[in-house]
């Protein structure tokens, strides 16, 4: 198939960015002719499997769901943009896509603004709802919800990553036809268990390759001196917990720090966001904050951790970080809600009965999280190995990219 894959943002850092580049790579590797449309200034920095990349000229405006700094752009929340601004932005992207038609499929990320972009091409298109647009921009906004509903009515298929997002989509947009539930994917070859010595050496080597970031002024780059900091912090065999994701209050990192306060454990906190300073002040010496890390770091870091905690207090479309941790053989412990509850169910189905309760904890409950972490971190070696193997099994069977990429094309093939 000839596929035009549209994503209005970058290719690294956040969930939908990673989703786009991994989907492009998987489709291209399996023989499809794929062109990615995004705003990444250096798409060649990522393995797209041979897919081409195009950067549409959007006139400097970047409508987003969560405010971050993007160099060279006028960044505004979608709901704060005028309709004229949004229409012009949609048309600029659709124009770039139309220049590459014909295609068998235009695949667009995000109900807004992906749905309108796909519709404006005049071609056959599908939309992947990621959840961020639904919760952060569209919910409670009648005009945006109506625009999303109208756009999806024209789509050949709308994909959701979980039953939770299917329900949210209907709450926000009303009944939507041709909805298909396909979870996000995990590269189970990249995210895999590794021996500790090998993983530590590889993590430090990747950190030494990081670009300079004097004074950590660039929040989207890893912190300066991470190699030496990680080497010192990870010395010894003290129990280790990892969090990676945005550092905003909705992600619940403060719940994790509260749970860790009375445990003999250390935490590596990976990510960027406007809540970092407050979190770092609260954590003290028990946690190391690294700034954002890429997959090239994380696949090794997860192999060094005893657990990965996903403590979000706000609904999640799926919980990709938990699936990635599971594939790496690092047992995830997730807040039981929204899409994360479906991750928990998948883990519980694979875990030995005696360990099944170590997949999830009640949302926002630092006391329960502390209790479960204490038990998980003190497991006997045989039980720890069984838990890691079962987490890996769940990821391979349920969330591998090979299966996911094929399932996304099945409803729109032909």
From TrEMBL:
GO terms for molecular function: glycosyltransferase activity. SUPFAM superfamilies: UDP-Glycosyltransferase/glycogen phosphorylase. It comes from the Bacteria. Keywords: Glycosyltransferase, Transferase. Residues 15-189 form the Glycosyltransferase subfamily 4-like N-terminal domain. Gene3D superfamilies: Glycogen Phosphorylase B. One of its GO terms (biological process) is carbohydrate derivative biosynthetic process. This is Glycosyl transferase group 1.
